[in-house]
């Protein structure tokens, strides 16, 4: 504490300082604290200011929170500069996996192994923000995005198709929609490549490689990308070509979004982040279905991908206040607030959450039916060159276009991975 003016002398001055110290100690913190949150999510600034921060401050009146985002494309560079200069905020919004692990390894993010709230999360939820040995989590998981398929309910009713549960039913439905001729069966292009992998391969793949079982076996070197469970999703993608409409090779991600929201396509291979935009732009009722399983009775798996977390600046001068906020982020209250304010970004804690948006509620209900996993390329396997994530984009687009077979794609990706990765 700094004196506000002059000197503090004598017994009276010491009593004053002691009284002030005791008063502050009663708040549970060394002093009333102001903490700042660094983030790239500048699109949800008003949600933080109007809903999230007031809810926290109501319970912690001695802590004042400022949400100070940067533009998404500038965040990594701006954050690194602030951390190097010692001017970064107390709390750091964390991207998943290696970008945040690098910050921890440099000593910029504190270990949260002793944070009480970290126990509210599963190993899958923590996997994006934990050291390779599994001992030191460094960000509290905030939200994930879930993959599946969003569909036009009116189109399904008009054509007379049911929501598919198996791969055969999926293609039978697409065949019927194509024969009807009023709708493009499925809205996706390959121009930008990433969506072919993210909403294609990583969407349907977990049903074939059995989620975490296959993902962890690939990391351990017990499975290879040439194995049946990793090639089969490419074989399914090769069949998508007939249902994507004319000119899909030149179709961009925004083109696909528009094709679906304008009511011209029946099915959209999706990530749950689309929900808010689709609600705003589509004037028809939508539903969502789980990636169809290969065979009736098979266990289902969903990509419930870790997307955003929150860590603590290791050099924060307000560590107690920052930890109080992180423990609150791990609570059911935060989970419900965040998930309902941002439909399609789902809480990762073990606390059950009821969602007001019916489409978001449909997505999150799959956690009760299916096993959750994360995208197979994100942890460890994309640290070298050729980069497995980027190569998966390319392979997925090629397979859909028919310029590479499923088997050739698996072999090429395994060869590239083996050239630098030793389990």
What's the helix and strand layout?
Layout: H1 10-25, E1 33-39, H2 45-59, E2 63-69, H3 72-85, E3 91-94, H4 98-105, H5 123-126, E4 139-152, H6 153-159, H7 167-180, E5 184-186, H8 194-204, H9 206-209, H10 211-220, H11 228-240, H12 253-261, E6 265-271, H13 275-281, E7 286-289, E8 301-312, H14 319-329, H15 332-341, H16 358-365, E9 371-373, H17 388-401, H18 406-418
Parallel strand pairs: 1-2, 1-3, 5-6, 8-9
Antiparallel strand pairs: 3-8, 4-6, 4-7, 4-8
Task: Tell me, rounded to a whole number, the average pLDDT.
Answer: 92
- Estimate the helix proportion, in percent: 40-55%
CATH architecture of the largest domain: 3-Layer(aba) Sandwich
How much beta, percentage-wise? 5-15%
Order of helices and strands: HEHEHEHHEHHEHHHHHEHEEHHHEHH
CATH class division of the largest domain: Alpha Beta
Largest sheet: 9 strands, mixed
Structural class: alpha/beta
Task: List the total number of helices.
Answer: 18
Uncertain spans, ≥5 residues at pLDDT below 50? 1-30
* Radius of gyration of CA atoms, rounded to a whole number: 24 Å
Tally the beta strands.
9
Please tell me the total number of domains: 2
Q: What form results from the Cα inertia axes? A: globular
Distance between termini?
A: 52 Å
CATH domain topology of the largest domain? D-Maltodextrin-Binding Protein, domain 2
Please identify which CATH superfamily of the largest domain we are dealing with: Periplasmic binding protein-like II
């Amino acid at each position: 504490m700094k004196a506000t003016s002059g000197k503090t002398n004598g017994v009276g001055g010491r009593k004053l300082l002691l009284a002030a110290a005791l008063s502050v100690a009663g708040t549970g913190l060394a002093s009333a604290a102001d903490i700042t949150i660094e983030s790239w999510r500048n699109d949800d600034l008003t949600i933080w200011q109007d809903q999230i921060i007031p809810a926290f401050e109501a319970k912690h009146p001695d802590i004042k929170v400022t949400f100070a985002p940067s533009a998404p494309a500038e965040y990594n560079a701006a954050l690194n500069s602030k951390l190097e200069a010692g001017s970064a905020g107390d709390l750091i919004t964390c991207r998943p996996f290696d970008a945040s692990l690098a910050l921890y390894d440099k000593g910029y993010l504190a270990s949260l192994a002793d944070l009480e709230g970290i126990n509210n999360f599963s190993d899958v939820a923590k996997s994006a923000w934990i050291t390779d040995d599994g001992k030191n989590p460094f960000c509290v998981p905030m939200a994930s995005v879930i993959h599946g398929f969003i569909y036009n309910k009116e189109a399904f009713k008009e054509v007379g198709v049911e929501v598919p549960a198996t791969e055969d039913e999926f293609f039978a439905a697409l065949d019927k929609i194509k024969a009807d001729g009023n709708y493009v069966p499925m809205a996706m292009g390959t121009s930008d490549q990433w969506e072919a992998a993210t909403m294609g391969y990583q969407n349907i793949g977990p049903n074939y490689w059995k989620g975490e079982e296959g993902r962890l076996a690939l990391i351990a070197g017990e499975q290879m990308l040439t194995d049946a469970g990793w090639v089969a999703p490419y074989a399914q993608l090769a069949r998508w070509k007939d249902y994507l409409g004319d000119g899909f090779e030149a179709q961009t991600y925004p083109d696909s979004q528009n094709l679906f929201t304008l009511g011209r396509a029946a099915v959209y291979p999706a990530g749950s982040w689309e929900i808010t935009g689709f609600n705003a732009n589509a004037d028809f009722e939508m539903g969502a279905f789980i990636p169809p399983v290969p065979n009736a009775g098979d266990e289902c798996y969903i990509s419930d991908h870790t997307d955003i977390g929150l860590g603590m600046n290791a050099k924060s001068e307000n560590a107690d206040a920052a930890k109080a906020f992180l423990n609150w982020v791990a609570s059911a209250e935060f989970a419900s607030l965040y998930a309902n304010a941002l439909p399609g970004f789902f809480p990762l804690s073990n606390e059950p959450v009821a969602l007001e948006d019916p489409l978001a509620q449909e997505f999150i209900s799959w956690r009760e039916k299916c096993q959750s996993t994360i995208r197979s390329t994100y942890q460890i396997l994309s640290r070298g060159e050729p980069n497995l994530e980027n190569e998966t984009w390319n392979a997925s687009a090629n397979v859909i276009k028919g310029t590479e077979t499923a088997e050739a794609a698996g072999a090429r990706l395994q060869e590239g991975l083996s050239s630098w990765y030793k389990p």
